[in-house]
Amino acid sequence: MSYKVFVDGQEGTTGLRIHEYLARRPDIEVLRIDAEKRKDNAERARLLNAADVAFLCLPDAASREAVSLVDNPNTCLIDASTAHRTVPGWTFGMPELAPGQRDAIRASKRIANPGCHASAFILALRPLVDAGLVPADAAVSATSLTGYSGGGKKMIEQYQEGGDVRLDAPRPYALGLAHKHLPEMAAHTGLQQPPVFLPVVANFYKGLAVSVPLHLSQLKPGTDASALRHALAERYAGEAFIRVMPLGGDPATVEEGFFDVQACNDTNRVDIFVFANAHQALLLTRLDNLGKGASGAAVQAMNVHLGVEESLGL
């Protein structure tokens, strides 16, 4: 069976990568808009309504506008923006989120693609909150180290042009503590409040790692590193794209004491680690911010919705 797919925002970083995934698929007919008509709402509406699945790779306001153009009840929208990730009526497009999430994605015509930082954070915390090991009212912090491709075309050009020595060092940002991923980071972990979150962009193209420090004394009594890892491994048993790594990592993943943030690049894989001593634990989750953190996740959600093999094209 062939499916018609349209990418609204096909020239952006996420849209281009989705096209790369779709190019591998004989079951997909890609609908394309002429360059001179990219801002023509009548043509956009025609293609959106002609599609079985339409990806919205747009800024938030433009995504909301695109949704208003769709009147075909059979068109499934997968929105890669922040606009609908906590909006009632939209399904969070993370199949591994919880039991029943795949059924919800399959049944929904409105799917919100998770953010890159949020994906790593949620995948590490949700099983622990569900298991009662991390209290829902816990005060949690998180730091994310990411490549510059997550900043879009302007940031990519800034880094690739070179000449600015300030870009040689990592750059913390979102210092107003209001990063756009925070609402979903709380809503989809079950935490009652969002984390204190510090994202840091550095001079490498892609790859992302989110770290979450935990004091074992503030968790469910008796919780140790083994219990944390066991809860993660139990939740993700059989998941094709998630690996729960050995406690403390191993020589293949942590060499000479250094962690490779880019080791999941060019995959749709997520690696989750637990590092710990007798009193503290550190959750560390890595992924490709353009893969499982954006375009790969969107295609995975499409596959689940269409009822085809979940890893098809990934």
From TrEMBL:
Primary enzyme class: oxidoreductase
CDD domains, A to Z: AGPR_2_C, AGPR_2_N
Catalytic function, reaction form: N-acetyl-L-glutamate 5-semialdehyde + phosphate + NADP(+) = N-acetyl-L-glutamyl 5-phosphate + NADPH + H(+)
Catalytic activity, EC: 1.2.1.38
Cell compartment(s), UniProt: Cytoplasm
Keywords per UniProt: Amino-acid biosynthesis, Arginine biosynthesis, Cytoplasm, NADP, Oxidoreductase
Semialdehyde dehydrogenase NAD-binding domain: residues covered: 4-105
Database matches in Pfam families: Semialdhyde_dh, Semialdhyde_dhC_1
InterPro entries: AGPR, AGPR_dimerisation_dom, AGPR_type-2, NAD(P)-bd_dom_sf, Semialdehyde_DH_NAD-bd
Keyword NADP appears in the UniProt entry: yes
Chief location category: cytoplasm
Pathway stated in the Swiss-Prot or TrEMBL entry: Amino-acid biosynthesis; L-arginine biosynthesis; N(2)-acetyl-L-ornithine from L-glutamate: step 3/4
Active site, UniProt feature: 116
Residue ranges of the TM segments: none
Highest taxon listed in the record's lineage: Bacteria
HAMAP family per the UniProt record, alphabetical: ArgC_type2
Family according to the record: Belongs to the NAGSA dehydrogenase family. Type 2 subfamily.
NCBIfam families: argC_other
Function: Catalyzes the NADPH-dependent reduction of N-acetyl-5-glutamyl phosphate to yield N-acetyl-L-glutamate 5-semialdehyde.
Identification of the protein by name: N-acetyl-gamma-glutamyl-phosphate reductase
Organism, scientific name: Ideonella azotifigens
Classification of source organism: Bacteria, Pseudomonadati, Pseudomonadota, Betaproteobacteria, Burkholderiales
